[in-house]
Amino acid sequence: MAKVKICETVLRDSHQSLVATRMTTEEMLPILKALDEVGYHSLEAWGGATFDSCLRFLNEDPWQRLRTIRDNVKNTKLQMLFRGQNILGYRHYADDVVEYFVQKSIANGIDIIRIFDALNDERNLRTAINATKKENGHVQVAFSYTTGPCYTTEYFVNYTKRLVDMGVDSICIKDMAGLLKPYAAEELVKALKTEIPNLPVELHTHYTAGLASMTALKAIEAGCDIIDTAISPLALGTSQPPTEPIVAALQGTPYDTGLDLEKLNVVGKYFEALREKYLENGLLSPKVLKVDVNALLYQVPGGMLSNLISQLKNLGKSDKLTEVLEEVPRVRADAGYPPLVTPSSQIVGTQAVFNVINGRYKTVTKEFKGLIKGEYGQAPMEIDPEFRKQIIGNEEPITCRPADNIAPELENLKKKAADYIQQDEDVLSYALVEQVAEKFFEKRRETQLALDSENADPDAKIHSV
Q1: How far is CA 273 from CA 27, 37, 157, 200, in A?
Q2: Which of 31, 121, 105, 109 is nearest to 71 (CA)?
């Protein structure tokens, strides 16, 4: 029986879930070497919302963040979360952009790319999988775990078998809403290990509904190879189960992780101070740290819930939250039961808000229309043809892989971004968040001009005072 391996999420999903991805590279830097010395299987350090957040809110270059982490983490694998054909953006990109992004991610220090598709449509994974293999990266595909009429253990096992045929190196159960219950996890992991015994299985879950540590333990007993955890000061709530209790619980058992609690304590003390700072400046709200029964009742992930609360507050309709939460499962059923994960969670949630405020489907968002049309891929369950016609009218639904309709766009993007490009990777930042990236590039240029001016005139600081 192999020891259980631990993936630490504090540099990515932990702070994405708790403090809206606002941890800076400067805050990470002092603890990177200590994290590297723990002996983790991997550090989830990049991808997901961190890319957008670096550029949009922190005035940081996400590529430089990755290089900085790699320079300080020499012994531990770095992994990232990658949204299939969406990359780290919110639409499907041409294959050449996906391939170039994968190439640059691995060149800048990523070892493991965790690839998922919001609809579990494996056609949207193929390009990223092949590109990762070409660059000799580790291909981990995550299926988006959720519940609903079609989501049986057999569904997830069959999906995984199709992924194995595509050449994946490992599989991840991505339980983004914290819906996976302990005995369901045991059944699922056992089935995966029975049907595909040589495929490593990793569990990624959230504490939102209060189940995560129990679920992790049952998954481990069933043969799960790797567990995602977060160091305790930034664990629980909408984050992952805490690292240290999992490690302590497994000590002296056949599943012993081999990790040293003293080394983890060094890491924990550092992030304890950071947690206090986040509580004081309001980045960390106590609300995201509590168990939320709504996750089980309405299958709404923590991040989606906070988005709904924010939308309703901005509309002056905070009193409609319960009605919106009740509407979400109905909209999801109409849309063919998509898993609620980026971007489908935002699409379904926003449509539920409009349905409650304006009447059911009286106002239809462009994104919801795209979801029903097939712009994001094939829904897990068939959408009622009459409902589809109600939403998209006489437009033809898309039945092919959506990216098959997208012409190569990398060269055109390079031309459009030519005035800003200082490194190869800049074109990818521009491709994913064009207007946000332009503002970042302009600020970068202004900063460099100011520095050049100071260097040219050593008395510039004195003159400017």
Answers
A1: 11, 20, 42, 35
A2: 109
Query: Residue 37: CB partners within 8 Å, gap ≥ 6?
Result: 75, 263
Q: Give the whole-angstrom CA distance, residue 83 versus residue 91.
A: 10
Report helix, strand or coil for 405.
Answer: helix
> In degrees rounded to 5, what are phi and psi of residue 410?
-65, -45
How many CA atoms within 13 Å lie on the side-chain side of 281? 9
Cα 111 to Cα 115: distance, rounded to the nearest angstrom? 13
What DSSP assignment string belongs to 103-123? HHHHHTT--EEEEE-TT--GG
Tell whether pTM > 0.70: yes
Which value, in Å, is the radius of gyration of the alpha carbons in the chain?
22
For 1-45, the pLDDT digits (tens) are 579 999 999 999 999 999 989 999 999 999 999 999 999 999 999
Q: Quick one: DSSP state of residue 299?
A: -
Contact 108, 134 (CB under 8 A): no
- Number of neighbouring beta carbons within 10 Å of residue 414: 16
Rounded Cα distance between 41 and 60, Å, is: 27
Number of H helices, E strands in the chain: 22, 8
> Taking a C-beta distance cutoff of 8 angstroms, is the pair 132, 113 a contact?
yes
What pLDDT is attached to residue 1?
Answer: 57
Residues of the chain with confidence (pLDDT) below 50: 461-465
Q: At what angle do helices 321-334 and 302-314 cross, to 10 degrees?
A: 120
Q: What DSSP state is assigned to residue 395?
A: P
Placement of tokens 């939102």 in the chain: 208
The distance in angstroms from the start CA to the end CA of the chain is: 68
Closest CA to 42 of 68, 67, 6, 12: 6
- Other residues' Cβ atoms within 10 Å of the Cβ of residue 219: 28
